[in-house]
Each structure stands twice: as C-alpha cells, then as structure tokens.
Design goal:
It is built from 8 helices and 9 strands. By secondary structure, it is of the alpha/beta class. The chain has 2 domains: 196 residues, SPOUT methyltransferase, trefoil knot domain (Alpha/beta knot, 3-Layer(aba) Sandwich); 63 residues, no CATH class. Strand 1, helix 1 and strand 2 form a beta-alpha-beta unit. The structure holds 6-chloroguanine. 6-chloroguanine binds next to strand 5 and strand 7. InterPro entries: Alpha/beta_knot_MTases, tRNA_m1G_MeTrfase_C_sf, tRNA_m1G_MeTrfase_TrmD, tRNA_m1G_MTases_N, tRNA_MeTrfase_TRMD/TRM10. It is found in: Cytoplasm. Homodimer. Belongs to the RNA methyltransferase TrmD family.
Length: 295
C-alpha cells in the first residue's frame, strides 16, 4: 500500500516508523511518503494560509498551495522521502526535495482500481466536520492501493480544494471523534494504524482481528491471564473450565453487557442488524431497558 501525507509538520508523522507500522514498512507492505506543504508555497515567507473570506477568527489554508501539492501527488511524481523504519532520519535530506517530476507518470492500471472500478486514489481529509471514521472504513481502506492524507491546520482548507480534487481523487472528509484537534496529523496516525493492521501480512495472526471489538458490532469481553488469583481477585471460574462452548457463551454475554453499558447505540444497531441470536437479543433488550435512565 502506498501512502502519501501532506502536512506542514512532517516530523509529526515520525511515529509511523515505529512498532507495527514500522514493521509493515520494513516488510515492503507499506510505502509512506511525507510531504512538507510549505514546499508548494510560492512566496518568500512560504505562507500557506490567509485571512478567511467574509472575516472571522483564524486563518484558512490557501487553495493555490494545496492545489500544487495534490497535483504533484495525483501525477504520481511525488517520490518524497520514503519512511524507512527505525532508522536515524534527522540527518537525511528533507523529504521535500523532489525533482525531475513528470506530472503524468502515474499510469492507470487494472489493479489500481477499487471494487467499484474507480481508479482514482483515495484522498482522506481529517477534519472535525467529517463523517465519523469507523472500523468498517478501516476494513474497506485496507484494500486500497494508494491513500493520500491532506492535513489541515488552522480553521481548515479552502473548500474549493476538495471540489477541484474530485477530478483526480475519491475524496472523503473524516473525523476521528467528537472533539477538536489542532490539526489532522494525530488523526492520520490513528487512521493509518487502524487501516494498516488490517492489511494482509501485517498482523501475524489473522484471527486476532476477527474477534475485535466492533467487527461483530459489539465491544469485546474482558480478558484475564495468570495468576489465577491476584491481590484477592480471581479469574472468572468459567474461563478455567476448559469448556469452550461455555467460555464462548460467557464472552458473548459479557460483550452484550459491556456494550449495553458503554455504547448502547451500538447494541441497538447490532440488534436491528440481526447480529444476535434470539437468546442474545432477549438479553440485549433486557440490558438496554435496565440501563435506560440510569447514570
Ligand atoms: Cl480527523 N481532525 C481534526 N483536526 N480534528 C478532529 C478530527 C480530525 N477528528 C476529531 N477532531
């Protein structure tokens, strides 16, 4: 999977080279390029923002600068700096030193296409005004050949950038939660980690994300490991019984209970989607009724 990130804070993406994502980079499964937006500025001060049209607080990122950055990436010429994992990097040439680029080198190939046959790369724009990023998106995007992230700062990016970008990208504005961050960089780390762990070959044990919270529409049950008793607290007896059926049933019950308590809206969705058998559905309704009005 090829990933391009455009940001005014390239250093913010350094954590990508560690742990799981670093391993994916080493294995050649993931090729991440980080681009400094300021390289596309055209004035002496490398300014990327200006006062909002119509007045108001803050600054808005300029379309001219973003347009040039996205043109280069859509053209396939943005070689950028590959992030090689766990290596000293601070002494390396800056990623923004791209040269000799042919803006039309990016060939359309059959395997560039998504399931709908659209060959345009996916442009992801982290913003608190975006649609919620969910596990289903992570799953879908883990099949993409090419993801591009546009990190905004300040009060956002000139709206025309997204309209224009639709000619060459499939564009999705996404939010990672109902709170406001200073910029999209932290959200890129979050989204990429969620996506890349689902790319085949990245997580050793492919079963380990089948049971993930959210994949089945419910939160996962609590887990335990040895010792059997710790500070006066015991592992639930059933988990030591060796009876896999009983263990599975117990885990489903705890999942339903926990989801009712913490994310009742998810449990209602799971019910409506028919993800629960009749016994589980009855338990879910009971929990939802009980928890209703409690705080
Ligand atoms: Cl994706 N970006 C920013 N800047 N703020 C956010 C967010 C994203 N999700 C929630 N708040």
């Amino acid at each position: 999977m090829r990933v391009d990130v455009v940001t005014i804070f390239p250093e913010y993406l350094e954590p990508l080279r560690h742990a799981l994502l670093g391993k994916a980079i080493e294995q050649g499964i993931l090729d991440v390029r980080v681009h400094d937006l300021r390289r596309f500025a055209d004035d002496q001060h490398r300014s990327v923002d200006a006062r909002p049209a119509g007045g108001g607080p803050g600054m808005v990122m300029r379309p001219t600068v973003w347009g040039r950055a996205l043109d280069e990436i859509a053209g396939g010429g943005a070689e950028g700096p590959g992030l090689s994992s766990a290596q000293p990097h601070l002494d390396r040439a800056r990623h923004d030193e791209l040269n000799g680029l042919d803006p039309h080198r990016y060939e359309e190939r059959e395997d560039d296409r998504d399931a709908s046959g659209d060959a345009r790369p996916l442009l992801l724009v982290p913003t608190p005004t975006g649609a919620p990023f969910r596990q289903a998106d992570a799953r879908a995007w883990s099949n993409e050949e090419h993801l591009v992230f546009a990190c905004g700062r300040y009060e956002g990016i000139d709206e025309r950038v997204f309209l224009d970008a639709r000619r060459r990208f499939r564009v999705r504005e996404v939010s990672i939660g109902d709170y406001v961050l200073i910029g999209g960089e932290a959200a890129v780390l979050v989204i990429l980690e969620a996506v890349v762990r689902l790319v085949p070959g990245v997580l050793g044990n492919s079963q380990s994300h089948v049971d993930d919270s959210f994949s089945g529409g419910l939160l996962e049950a609590p887990s335990y490991t040895k010792p059997r008793e710790w500070r006066g607290l015991e592992i639930p007896e059933v988990l030591l019984s060796g009876d896999h059926e009983k263990v599975d049933r117990w885990r489903r019950e705890r999942s339903i209970e926990r989801t009712a308590e913490r994310r009742p809206e998810l449990l209602s969705e799971a019910l409506a989607a028919g993800l629960l058998d009749s016994e589980e559905a009855a338990a879910a309704r009971r929990h939802l009724d009980e928890d209703w009005g409690e705080d």
